[in-house]
TrEMBL record:
Cofactor comment: Binds 1 zinc ion per subunit.
Residues annotated for L-glutamate binding in this entry: 9-13, 45, 185, 203
This enzyme's EC code(s): 6.1.1.-
Chain positions recorded as ATP binding sites: 244
GO cellular component terms given for this protein: cytosol
UniProt KW ATP-binding keyword: yes
Name listed for the protein in its UniProt record: Glutamyl-Q tRNA(Asp) synthetase
Record family assignment: Belongs to the class-I aminoacyl-tRNA synthetase family. GluQ subfamily.
Motif ('HIGH' region): 12-22
Binding site for Zn(2+): 101, 103, 127, 131
Species, as recorded: Ramlibacter rhizophilus
Length: 294
């Protein structure tokens, strides 16, 4: 069982209503919190303001409520927390762990090509460290996190098992603040998980690759590392992850029990209850019986 004081969260980006895939992530995080007798929070990850849709946050909260998923504390919005992200960046800069970068994506691609490392199609654009030693008179565009010395980072995912990533080789120095002045997801999520006392992160499997970057940031900032569980994804007919970008339909919660049953099937839960409250209670018991939630 988890230690006392379990705190989990669901952190959607309000770029549109929830769809079937995002409900799976929400339900998994809610069930994990309830199965451990913990608290479940909701955080709106709206730092990428140009992509956010006005009113989508309210729609998401209403969709969650219709499915019986109620947060134990008032939601927070990342767009109001810039001062906290700046303070974290200042600490990293003072410690020599972050630096300004003048490179555009085209610059990075050209540097990789010149170094004999062309980017693979759909592959990670691994930053080659061009600005680690200074800007050479060029204006700063973004701020990056150093990955020198990270080595091979290891962690255990509660569903996927032992994981590892060579951060410098597979990702490179990653962005903390973007060229447009917006805060990057990696820094914001680490700062907010720590501020909210999150002990367990349950989210979609598509975010598993972010974990090493977040662990490295947690270590650099002297923060504790939550336990991670990456839940199965809902995939479209083409096999790709269902998402707003590939046309996922908004979740219709006029029949919330049907929504829960569909999400439960993705999570491997067979529940026969005929009311929302009854379904959630049975699903919580089924989730609690799994060894993977330990």
């Amino acid at each position: 069982m988890a230690p006392a004081g379990y705190r989990g969260r669901f952190a959607p980006s309000p770029t549109g209503p929830l769809h079937a895939g995002s409900l799976v992530a929400a339900l998994a995080s809610w069930l994990d919190a309830r199965a451990h007798g913990g608290r479940w929070l909701v955080r709106m990850e709206d730092v990428d303001t140009p992509r956010c849709v006005p009113g989508a946050d309210d729609t998401i909260l209403a969709q969650l409520a219709a499915c019986g998923l109620h947060a134990d504390e008032p939601p927070i919005w990342q767009s109001s927390r810039g001062a906290h992200y700046q303070a974290a960046l200042d600490r990293l800069v003072a410690g020599g762990m972050a630096y300004p970068c003048a490179c555009s994506r085209k610059d990075i691609e050209q540097a990789l090509l010149a170094g004999g490392h062309p980017r693979e199609r759909h592959g990670e654009l691994v930053y080659p460290g061009t600005c680690r030693q200074g800007l050479n008179g060029r204006p700063a565009r973004a701020w990056r996190m150093r990955t020198e010395g990270a080595g091979l980072l290891h962690w255990t995912d509660r569903r996927l098992g032992p994981q590892q990533q060579d951060l410098e080789r597979e990702v490179g120095d990653f962005v903390l603040r973007r060229a447009d002045g917006l805060w990057a997801y990696q820094l914001a999520v680490v700062v907010d998980d720590a501020a909210q006392g999150i002990t367990h992160v349950v989210r979609g499997e598509d975010l598993a690759d972010n974990t090493a970057r977040q662990v490295w940031l947690q270590q650099a900032l002297g923060l504790s590392t939550p336990l991670y569980l990456h839940a199965p994804l809902v995939r479209g007919a083409n096999g790709e992850k269902l998402s707003k970008q590939n046309g996922a339909a908004p979740l219709d919660t006029t029949e919330p029990l049907a929504c829960l049953r569909a999400a439960g099937q993705v999570l491997g839960l067979s529940v026969s209850a005929t009311t929302v409250d009854g379904w959630l209670a049975q699903a919580t018991g089924a989730w609690a019986a799994r060894e993977t939630i330990g």
